[in-house]
Write a structure and sequence with these properties.
The protein has one domain (2-91): 2-Layer Sandwich (Alpha-Beta Plaits). Helix 1 packs antiparallel against helix 3. With 99 residues, the chain is α+β, with helices and mostly antiparallel strands. The relative contact order is 0.31. The protein is built from three helices and four strands. A four-stranded antiparallel sheet has the order 2-3-1-4, covered by helices on one side. It has helices spanning 15-29, 62-66, 69-81; strands at 2-9, 35-42, 49-56, 87-91. The two termini are 24 Å apart.
Length: 99
């Protein structure tokens, strides 16, 4: 299993367009093979910052996801809304021994 954490900062006045596009993309993404969860959250301290937290069965599931029609459409919306490049991290759920 892997997690994808994508942080996006949007320009003022684009929240409605951004959220509508995200809802459409999420609705299709959760139907994809290998998608366990795909959630969008909004920062409490910065209303321009949104974070996607995705959980996938494996890294191989990301290939078809990235090439899907709904992701192509989503990227066109994102391009018009963001004020900085997205920060995307792929994380494994392995725990770090801190003891």
């Amino acid at each position: 299993m892997i997690y994808v954490v994508a942080t996006l900062t949007i320009r003022p006045g684009t929240a409605a367009e951004f959220i509508a596009g995200a809802k459409a993309c999420i609705a299709e993404t959760v139907k994809e093979s290998g998608c366990i969860s795909y959630d969008l959250t909004e920062s409490v301290t910065d209303p321009a910052k949104f974070v996607f937290v995705e959980q996938w069965e494996n890294a191989e599931a990301l290939g078809p996801h990235g090439a899907s029609d709904h992701m192509r459409a989503w990227r066109r919306i994102v391009k018009e809304c963001i004020s900085a490049p997205p920060r995307i991290e792929i994380i494994t759920p392995e725990k770090v021994d801190v003891r």
